[in-house]
Amino acid sequence: MSMFLDRETVAANIVAAFEAFTPEEQNVVLRQILQKCQPLQLRFVYAELKTLLAVDFVAHLPRELTERIFSYLDGVEMSRAACVSKLWREKTNNEGLWQRLCKLRRWEHFGFNEDLSREESCSSPTASSRTSPRFTPVNSDVISLSPLCRWKDVYIRAHHLNKNWATGKYTVMPALRGHEGRVNCMDCDGKLLVTGGADNCVRLWDLATGKCTNQLEGHTDSVTGIQLRNNIVVTSCGDSVIRVFEASSGRCLKVMQGHTAAVEHLCFDGANLVSASNDRTVRVWSLSSGKCIHNLTGHTDDIQLLCMHGDLAVSSSWDQTLRLWDIRRGLCLQILVGHSEVVYCCQFDERRVVSGGADSFVKIWNPQTGDCTKTLSGHTGEVYCLKYNEEVIASGAADSIVRLWSFAGECLHELREHIGVVRCLLLEGDRLVSGGDQKKLVVWNTKDGKLLNVVHRNPTLLHLMWANETKLVLASPEAPGSVSILSYW
């Protein structure tokens, strides 16, 4: 015991003597002691020095520099940094940093007009996929911590939603039944769903509850087209009449007559209203007066599709041509000749027209000159659907394949999962949803062509599909008509 106390006394004397030395003398003593140490003691010294020399830069640097350093982190790295300490948690709980991350992931709109905090989950699901998609808010029980900043909350919710789509987490709402014939057309604004059927009936549904809220009366033949914008529902019908309704009341506001055969196609953006009929004409209408402004002629066979962008419209026909129309002036700007069969699908803007036809080709056109700039070959069956964004063109065909193309004409990926015709495509950012025969809906990542998940809950056949960020709406061409809703939130 006395020996131990003596050693303690000696150690205390050494420390006291060391403290009395000048800094230069302390360095000399330390060097001599280190030279006498064995590797085990040196490792101990090294471990102790790492802790003693560590400096929390966040506590010492100016706020601007700290934010600049954190701006190089992604969402996962930022979340890990928030776990380092209370100080780091507060520094990373920064609106500007998280809004920037939302912008990089194209999730900024969730902080503005599509606030997920106000989105309701499916109230009465009939079934769900492997696990529930429901979101549980992150609430801190530590009183000393500041509340989660708004943009971090937006990022967490958007990340959760994106993961639900990628992993196939959804709930299935009760099927919407009421049409006696098949559902021919539908449109939705995220809250209200409008369907038109071969039973001459138009039904309005609450998308959140799945309840039919109203029926629009007056159609004397099959309803062929529906457009919903700003509480206005516009319908086209086999009786050659176009009708305009107020969605909230169901009241018919206008009846537009002029076509001499069934009106098969309809485009309405809230301002411009364009229709195409089996009388082989395209008509432009005044919504306020209900009168036809322009009667656009030129097609020599039945019109297969009609699409609109701003003051321009494109129609395709069984005469194997596409026509580009100026709907404000009532002029045919271009006749696009190149497909050897009917064109089934088309999307366009001011810079390009992209079309897909029964000849198995996808073509890219210059709308200024009418020239075909690229022909994308690879499909071995009719191309029934296509979508594009700034990075990629997606096309689906009767050969059961979805192809991803660059605008230079290169086939980037062949997506093989469908059995039967691919009939519908939806493209949102890097997420592509394809629908086809044999009960298959497939979710893909367009960046790498990776299959994310397969959904088997749609009807045997699928011909209509609508989606927003949280819901997927599906309609079957079979009778009696039914609509399915999948909620990913």
Question: What does this entry look like structurally?
Answer:
- With 489 residues, this protein is of the alpha+beta class.
- 21% of the residues lie in helices and 37% in strands.
- The chain has nine helices and 34 strands.
- The strands form eight sheets. Strands 1, 2, 3, 32, 33 and 34 form a six-stranded antiparallel sheet that branches. A four-stranded antiparallel sheet has the order 4-5-6-7, with no helix packed on it.
- Helix 8 (95-104) packs parallel to helix 9.
- The radius of gyration is 32 Å and the shape is elongated.
Outline of the structure:
The chain is an alpha+beta fold.
Given the structure, what is the number of helices?
Answer: 9
Determine the structural class based on helices, strands and strand pairing: alpha+beta
Over all CA atoms, what is the radius of gyration?
32 Å
Our estimate of the beta-strand percent is 35-45%
Span between N and C termini? 71 Å
Q: What is the overall silhouette?
A: elongated
Mean pLDDT: 92
Helix content: 10-25%
- Uncertain residue ranges: none
Give the number of DSSP strands: 34
Largest sheet: 6 strands, antiparallel
Main attributes?
489 residues, alpha+beta, four-stranded antiparallel β-sheet, 34 strands, 37% strand, elongated
